[in-house]
Amino acid sequence: MSSLDHLGLSRRLLLGALAASPLLPSLLAATTARAEDTRPLASWSDGPAKKAILDFIRATTDAASKDFVPPEERIATFDQDGTLWVEHPIYSQLVYCLDRVPAVVKLKPELAKAEPFKTVMSGDFEKIAKLSLRDFEEIAVATLTGMDVDQFGAEAKTWIESAKDHRWKRLYTELTYLPMQELLTYFRANGYKTFIVTGGGQDFVRVYSERVYGIPPEQVVGSALGTKFSYDNDGKPFLTKEPKLLLNDDNAGKVEGIHLEIGRRPRAAFGNSTGDRQMLEYTKAGDGARLSMIVLHDDDKREYAYGPAQSLPDTKVGAFPQALFDEAKKDGWNVISMKDDWKRVFAFEAS
Amino acid sequence: MSSLDHLGLSRRLLLGALAASPLLPSLLAATTARAEDTRPLASWSDGPAKKAILDFIRATTDAASKDFVPPEERIATFDQDGTLWVEHPIYSQLVYCLDRVPAVVKLKPELAKAEPFKTVMSGDFEKIAKLSLRDFEEIAVATLTGMDVDQFGAEAKTWIESAKDHRWKRLYTELTYLPMQELLTYFRANGYKTFIVTGGGQDFVRVYSERVYGIPPEQVVGSALGTKFSYDNDGKPFLTKEPKLLLNDDNAGKVEGIHLEIGRRPRAAFGNSTGDRQMLEYTKAGDGARLSMIVLHDDDKREYAYGPAQSLPDTKVGAFPQALFDEAKKDGWNVISMKDDWKRVFAFEAS
Fold it and tell me: Which residues of B touch A203 (CB under 8 A)?
C-alpha cells in the first residue's frame, strides 16, 4: 500500500470539485443536535435502524438487563468520512493538502517548477485529477510534515474554519449528518464515551472534533505520523511532524488503533465502507449486546448514492462492495439507509 | 537502546526481592482517597509543594483568573512508577514477566533447557539478578507477546490481584501513594482529565488503572507493542500482541506518546526520574499557568531514599541525577519531598 493510503487520503480521490474557499464559522449542526436532547433521535424515522439503536441502549443501560454494561465500559466508535459527514466526491483533508501547496511553494520556491507541485499550482483541475497516487503522496508529505505540531494545528484550524465544499457552498463542518450528531448525543446521554476512529489523519480531525462533534482530541483515533522531540535555540522543547507512519488507521489498522489508543473493544461501532469492516467485525464479535451499523449512501437527492445503491457513474470514491452489505446481513450488523431512516440529513435543511 | 528498555523494564532492574505471591484484592488506597473529597490533599503537609498545587488549581479554574483554562483543556499527566506507586527495588511489571516464565515453559518445554529461561526456572535469585539486559529482553518478548490481547489482559489481571511485594507483604496495588491518590481526586474534582504516562507497558497498566487510580484504560499512555489482526478457524477476529515496538514511552518518547494518544500539551505533569524530564519540560514550556512537579524519594523510613537523597548503596534502580533537580530549580518545577510534604505515604498506615 502507498503511504498516501496511509494518510487516509487515497482511493476516493476524485476529480471535479477541488474548490474550497473561506468564510464564517458555523456550529449549526452541533448546536441543533445538542438542543434536541429531550427528543432523542428526532431526525430518525421509525424503522429497523432506529429500533436497533434504542434496543441496544436499553439492553446495555438498564441495570436489570442481562446485557447491562457498567458505565466505564461503554465505548462507541464512529468512522468519520461518509459516516459522520460527507466524504463524496473528495475527502476534505485532501483538499486541505492541495490548498496548502502554495504556502509550501512560497517557502521552497524551487518546487514551483517541480512536479507534482507545478501541476497543483496551475489550478488546472483536469490535470490535477490525473496525478498519480505517488504524486498525491508527495503532496501529502510536503503539506503535512516537517512543521511544529502547534503550527500545523493552527494552519489546519484556519483552513477548516473557512474552506467550503463545491456543491452546497458551505463549510465542510456544516456537512455533518444531523441524525449522526443526534446519535452521538444520545450515546453520551446514556453514559457512552464516543470516539472517532478514522482513516484520516488524527492530527487533522482533532483540530475541529470537539467543536463539531463534541468529541475531544484525546477521543480521536486516526492515521498518525511519528513526531520528533527537539529543542530550539533558546532551549525550548517542540515536536515536529515526521514523514514516518506510526498507525495506518484503516481496515485492520482500525482495530489495532482502537487497541493502541482506547485499549478495549467497543460495544458499538459505526462505519460505511470496507475500511470499517474489521472494526465492525471486531465489535460484533465481543460478548453480550454489541451493535455494528453501516450507513448506506442511497440518497442521491439529499446527499449521494454510491456503493450498492449506486446511481452515479463509476468513480474512484470509496470501496462499498455488495459483499460488505452481504456480510452485514449475515453477521447481524444493521444497515442505516440515508433515504429511509433519516427525516433530515443536514441541520441546515428545513425540518 | 535495547528493546527491554523499550518495554520499560530496564535500568532499575534489581535483585533481591523477586518474591511475589497471591491473595485478597484490595481497594484500600483508592477507596480512602475517594472518601476524602471534602478534605482535599488531607495527607499533604502545608508547605511549598501543597501551595504550588493549590495555587495552580485556583489560577486555572477561577473564571476571573487571567490563567483560566476551559474545562475541556484541563489535562494532567502522571508518571506511574516512583510517582504514583513504589518502583523500588524492582518494577512490578518485571516481576510479572519473571513469574510468567513457568507458564511459557509449560507451553514450550524445550525452553526449560535454554537460557535465560533455565536460570529463571531455577529460582536462584542471585543468578537471575546477573542476567543481562538482552536476557531480560528475551524474557519480556516471551512473556508479553504472541498471545491474544484478551488472554494477556486476563493473565495480568489474575497476577496483579494476587502478587505481593517483598517488604510490606502487600499487593502491589496497595503500594500507591495516598497523597498522589488525593492529588488525582483533587484534579478530577476540578475538571481535569487525569492520564497516566508511563514507561511501562500500557497494556499492563490498563488492566488495573481504573480500579486502582480511577483512570480508565483509554487514559493510560505507555510503551506499546504492535498488534496483529487476524481470524481464527471459525472466522472470529482477534488481536495478537506482536514483538514490535510501536511506542517507547520514556524520555522524549513520553512527549511523543502524549501527542499520539492525547493530542494536546498537558497543563500539569508529575514525574520522578530522568525518564520524565522531557514531559516536565514540554508541559512547563506551554503558555499560561503550567505545573511540573517531581517526587523526591528522601524517606528511607516510610519508603526509600534514592537519587539525590540517596542513603542506599548504589543500585541499578532509576536515573535521578542531581542535574534533574538542578533543572527543576532553574525551570520552576516544584519538588515534592516525600519526607516533608507527605503526612502519610500509604493508605494502610495509621493516620
Answer: 263
